[in-house]
Amino acid sequence: MRYAETGYNLEVDLTTGNIERVETDPELVELHLGGHGTAARIIWERVPPEVKPFDPENLLIFSAGLLEGTSAPGANRTIINCISPVTNYLAHSMMGGYFGPELKMAGYDKIIFRGKSPKLIYLWIHNDKVEIRDASHLRGVGAQRTAEMIREELGDPRIQVASIGLAGENRVYTASIEHSHSSASRGPAPVMGDKNIKAIAVRGTKDVNVFNAEKLFEMSFNSLKSVAKNPNVGDWMAYTWDDSFHHDNFSWGNSRVRRKGYWSAELQERWKQLTKRLLNRKTGCYNCLKECKLSIQHPGQPAYGAKCFSKISWHMCSFDELDFSWEILAVAQEYGLDNFSTPQTIALAVELYDNGILTDEDMPDFPENSKERFYYLLEKIVRREGIGDILANGSYAAARQIGRGAEAYEHNTIKKFEQLPLKLGKVNFPYFLMFSTGEKINITQIQGSYPQDPLRNPEKRQKFCDGWVAAPERFKKFYMEWEPRTDPSMEASCHICDWNETMHYIDDAVGTCAFLSSFRGQFGGKPAYHIYNFPKYINAATGLNLDSDDVWQIARRNRNLVRAINVGRGMRRADEKPPEDHWKVRLPEQEQELLSMYYKFKGWTDDGIPTKPTLDKLDLGFVADELIRRGILTGEETNVYEETTTLPAPTDEQLEAALYSASEKVRMAQGGG
Amino acid sequence: MGEKVKKIVKTIKVNLDECNGCRTCEMVCASFHAKPRYSNSNPNRSRIRVVIDERAGVWVPIRATDYTKAECDGRRTYTIKGREYSECSFCGTICPARDLFKEPDSGLPLKCDMCESDPALEEPMCVQACGLNCLTYEEEEVWVEAEEQVKPAEIELSLKSLVDKYGMGKLADIVARMSQKG
Q: How many CB atoms sit inside 10 A of residue A408's CB?
């Protein structure tokens, strides 16, 4: 019997309509854990660099992480991979909600789509029964409305649906896959549209077998209670009334204008009253008590979900009143557009127009009012009409298609992908590395285990370190040595970047949410999941006997595998740079020195390519062979990473104390039954 | 007036405004009732289900109540915020009209038993797991009329009056027919 994973993938050939239930190799779990890790392995093996994003040979993979469908709290992320049309690299996309656990309970770890359907379809999975169904009646229908119609059509409100709206159908690069009140952006939605898949509907009623269910349940149940009380996990920024952090620190418009001091008591009160009027309630995802999403409902309209960033993105890009975001989000989500890149792309177009690069010829009847301008361009983009056909390719590609100097205004992307609109002072070493070299190509998907600033008072710093159960010892040392207003050393910066990305790679393989783990280690030092308790969850779920160093090694393997996919597609050192004007003061020489040091630390060449000794050490010798065959490596490169250790690990007592205090211990019924 | 006796009434109060749709209550319910205990966490085996309609902003935890062989003969519909729901939508009865609260494999009904167990839990698992104050457990002591003791002499007296009225033969026939029907 396979534990935690079902051991089966669903392979759907859209060109022929063939559907197969394929048994997977158990060894892959030991090597990659699952989720993003095993998906990367499949992409490596089956999608060579010659395959372009819209080729039928591009795969679209929906994965449930290893711990999904078990009692592990917050293990509910659906991981979606393909080669992204935005970057031509591996797309890294995820969503919360209920889809992943439901897929597991239907009996599958992954759905792998290949080919292209000749007509618009949706896939209906009901345990062992899987069918491709006609979706012509759903063409142009909003993403959430599609889910509703499919549930009505199939007669079960418990069906979980992932769908695209008009934007995905029209292969808009900033489209998103919508499910529940969650969404997956960064590449897969236009590929889903290209493959003519309108939606996937899944209903699963099977058990997910685990190795030691009682142990797993005990850990999970206590963690659930701990998570509910823990103020440092979840996404409090989704619903905090004081939103000065975002408004004062993130840039407005085309990620260019800082409005420090914008937030005021009067504004906050107005914001509060407005939101209270529209707020249904805060909502969460499967088996997680945290409430990271807001259900917003305008009178007479369907409700939609908003998150910490989406609630501010539109009005900050448009310089409009706060209520604009609440208003346009309902429209954007029904079209299935992401709320991260799309408003930034529209703001870029407005700036190009205001600077005479785009003209009335490009944008006939372009309104004067900012809000109306946004609606005007939104409608053009989702339909790919006129200038919308260019803007639909995202900021990077659109600026280059427009030309006439538009490239200079496009300044907030890394590797063609939109970044958080930040404008900071002097370059920050660990963040320089995370921004530049992250394979996920988005900073929020990499950072979070290490604090962003040192505590000023050394005693407080020491106290923080004393209770910092999530941190391997070396990070406590780095933190204690970190003087306020200085950079961590270059050596520390390499380690900090490495740790931050490692925790995300584990999350993405097992399907746990970053808000309980990799993104929340920076606050309070006691996230629900960390390098020391992950092995215990994985052991109880799968029976695999891993320690923290083993799990770190798997994350390293997955990281290098994704790196190899992208290197095969042409990514090199020259691409590894943050947005042009992210920091006011740049330090070009130190940045390059840092980059070289980081590559060395990772066991890569000076051009950022994993070497053969490194890949061999990670059981990825076949990857090295392919890179040599393609002339990307000579095979003579000798650099290899040095293993870092997570020892000494905290004792079980220390871990337990960090989870909950004795007085809060949860009573569990033993025996009986 | 009959005698009053003390009885414990167990209640799980549901505050709909606090439910966030996480369905953790489903997971722990299924786990607690699994045999062996905690051997699976399949919410399809839960005795509590959260009915979710995100577009309508509706999140409603419902516990399985009684089993019935027959479905309702006529159903009402309810309109909430402009959307119509059938009476089935929020019903806890285990009935032939739908597969809610039935074992997915056997189809056998799953009824909420307030997590009765030995040793007893202080609160049912769903309540323990709900950190949102959506589900709260209450025990209330209530005084109820004690059931009247059967007094054979009174039954005999009543039967005698029926014999007097209809005759022994007819009454015996009716009793025999009733006992055959069961």
A: 10
Phi, psi of A420 (to 5 degrees): -60, 140
Number of H helices, E strands in chain B: 4, 6
Q: Are A108 and A125 in contact (CB under 8 A)?
A: yes
The owner of tokens 């530049």 is: A436
Q: Which residues of A touch B53 (CB under 8 A)?
A: 157
**Scanning the structure block, which residue is given the tokens 């989870």?**
A659
Considering only residues 404 to 433 of chain A, which have any Cβ-Cβ distance to chain B shorter than 8 Å?
none
Residue with tokens 């088996």: A287
Element (H, E) at A430: helix A429-437
Closest by Cα among A544, A514, A518 to A531 = A518
| Strand order through the sheet with A293-296 | A279-283, A293-296, A304-306
Given a cut of 50, whether residue A662 has pLDDT beyond it is no
The pLDDT score that the predictor gives to residue A661 is 46
User: In this complex, which of B17, B37, B44 lies closest to A205 when CB atoms are compared?
Assistant: B44
B121 at A interface, C-beta within 8 A? yes
Chain B residue with minimal CA distance to A280? B57
Q: Which residues pair with A95 in a beta bridge?
A: A78
Contact state of A73 with B24 under an 8 Å Cβ cutoff: yes
Do A594 and A429 touch, CB atoms closer than 8 A? yes
- Asked if B90 reaches chain A (Cβ–Cβ under 8 Å), the answer is no
Instruction: Give chain A's mean pLDDT.
Output: 94
What CATH class has B4-147?
A: alpha beta
Chain A CB contacts of B129 under 8 Å are 221, 224-225
Query: Which of B22, B46, B49, B99 to mutate: most A Cβ within 10 Å?
Result: B22
Q: Note the pLDDT tens digit of each residue in B158-167.
A: 888 889 889 9
The distance of B13 to chain A (nearest Cα, Å) reads 18
Tokens encoding A498? 């490495």
| Nearest chain B residue to A294, by CA | B20
Contact state of B28 with A291 under an 8 Å Cβ cutoff: no
Distance, in Å, from the CA atom of A358 to the CA atom of A349, rounded to the nearest integer, reads 7
Indicate yes or no: CB of B104 within 8 angstroms of CB of A180. no
Which pTM was predicted? Answer: 0.94
pLDDT at B1: 55
B54 touching A (Cβ < 8 Å): yes
Helix (H, G, I), strand (E, B) or coil at A580: coil
Counted across chains A and B, CB pairs separated by less than 8 A come out at 126
Domain parsing of chain B, residue ranges = 4-147, 150-182
Hey, of B19, B20, B60, which one would you mutate to test binding to chain A, going by the most A CBs within 10 A of its CB? B20
Question: What's the order of all strands across the beta sheet hosting A182-184?
Answer: A129-134, A121-126, A197-203, A160-163, A177-179, A182-184
Scan for tokens 């590559």, then name that residue: A599
pLDDT one-digit tens code per residue, A226-282 = 998 888 899 988 888 999 989 998 999 999 999 999 999 999 999 999 999 999 999
Q: Mean pLDDT score of chain B, rounded to an integer?
A: 89
pLDDT in tens, B92-116: 999 988 889 999 988 889 999 999 9
ipTM for the complex shown: 0.94
